[in-house]
Task: structure prediction
Amino acid sequence: MPAIVALVLYGLFPIVRGAVTGLASVDKHLLDVAHVLGMTPRQRLLQVELPLASVAILNGIKVTAVTNVGTATLAALIGGGGYGTLIVTGLGINDQAMVLAGAVPSALLAFVFHAGFEVLDRVFVPQGLRTRAVVR
Result:
């Protein structure tokens, strides 16, 4: 339980920072236009601000998820178990194979989370806001 609480608290800052940055970066002229069109504050939030801020918001969530996968291995130091147990034990007895048995799956899990969030980006971020590779 202490590891879960620590990871949640550790992950709050990037999420909040991404949300605040994303919402603050919305062009004020667009909000004025939405107001002139008669949108309520709730409609402006849901139909203008959140879609435009979705890139920064999802980026903050992605950073938190991927970082917490790696940080969760430290939970073994306080009895949290997981792949970190193999890493800590391997370091203690100088067994590189045991260290790798814990580190490799943890790294792969971080890549899986990253790939999962790339898929979520395609679902939640409006197509016009996605970054595109320039082909020359």
